[in-house]
Design a protein that fits this description.
By secondary structure, this protein is an alpha+beta fold. It has one domain (2-255): Endonuclease/exonuclease/phosphatase (Deoxyribonuclease I, Chain A, 4-Layer Sandwich). It is built from eight helices and twelve strands. α3 runs parallel beside α5. The radius of gyration is 17 Å and the shape is globular. Residues 4-248 form the Endonuclease/exonuclease/phosphatase domain. InterPro entries: AP_endonuc_1, Endo/exonu/phosph_ase_sf, Endo/exonuclease/phosphatase, ExoIII-like.
Length: 256
């Protein structure tokens, strides 16, 4: 079973690339981020036409997450995180699908830092950890998949110096991510590629893609019951090089 995460960077603008990827790779479950569309304009018919059911949590113009499943529709468990009732950003969606608990996550970027946006990022990570603990207590095979906007280790970035002041690499961001791992979640890509140098994102600017100047911010965290079934974890890097591609590449795990 293949479970993927893909920051699509605008589902309407990238719809041909999304449908192409679904058709060519046929993931069983796909978590999308930055769909950047309202609930009313989500292209559900196009997705159903290639054999996928979908649930989504949209927001016009930015943010937005979705969960797709081949041959069935995920059963929604939760949308949004508790802790800040005034937070209306569409960044979290959780569902039961194909015997797994799956969350699609679009964590705040946090730039510029320091400042309110960085403070919001850290609060959001604490809220995510609280929800992850609740999922853990259910003892279900679970995957927390998405764009975490955190570069966990120096080996996960093309240049430490270039990103040193970015919110994605601040000690507080990394510490919050490590706390999730310390709670017992497994970073699937890191477990399969301990030496690092595996990128999931390449900026549109500064010739980043041709230079392979990328970094890893798209993660799939596995509960113990899911980690025990882990066969492989990889990045569909070639899709980043296609015409009008997202700046992220699909990232996936395969479970027995």
């Amino acid at each position: 079973m293949r479970i993927a995460t893909f920051n699509i960077n605008g589902i309407k603008a990238r719809l041909p690339r999304l449908l192409e990827w679904l058709d060519e790779t046929r993931p069983d479950i796909a978590c999308l981020q930055e769909i950047k569309t309202s609930d009313d304009t989500f292209p559900v018919r196009d997705i159903e036409d290639v054999g996928y059911g979908a649930i989504w949590h949209g927001q016009k113009g930015f943010n937005g997450v979705a969960i797709l499943a081949r041959g069935e529709t995920p059963v929604e468990v939760r949308r949004g995180l508790e802790g800040e009732p005034e937070d209306e950003h569409s960044r979290y969606l959780e569902a039961d699908v194909k015997g797994l608990r799956v969350a699609s996550i679009y964590l705040p970027n946090g730039n510029p830092q320091p400042g309110p946006k960085f403070d919001y990022k850290l609060r959001w990570m604490k809220r995510l950890r609280d929800r992850a603990a609740q999922i853990w207590a259910e003892e279900v095979p679970a995957i927390l998949a998405g764009d975490y906007n955190v570069i966990p280790r120096d080996r996960d970035v093309y240049s430490v110096k270039a990103m040193a002041e970015d919110a994605l690499m601040q000690p507080e961001s990394r510490a919050a991510y490590r706390r999730l791992l310390g709670d017992g979640w497994t970073d699937a890509i890191a477990s399969r590629h301990p030496a690092g140098r595996v990128w999931t994102y390449w900026d549109y600017q500064m010739n980043a893609w041709p230079r392979d100047a990328g970094f890893r911010i798209d993660h799939l965290l596995l509960s113990p019951a899911a980690a025990d079934r882990l066969i492989d974890a990889q990045v569909d890097k070639d899709f980043r090089g296609r015409e009008k591609a997202s700046d992220h590449a699909p990232t996936w795990v395969e479970l027995s």
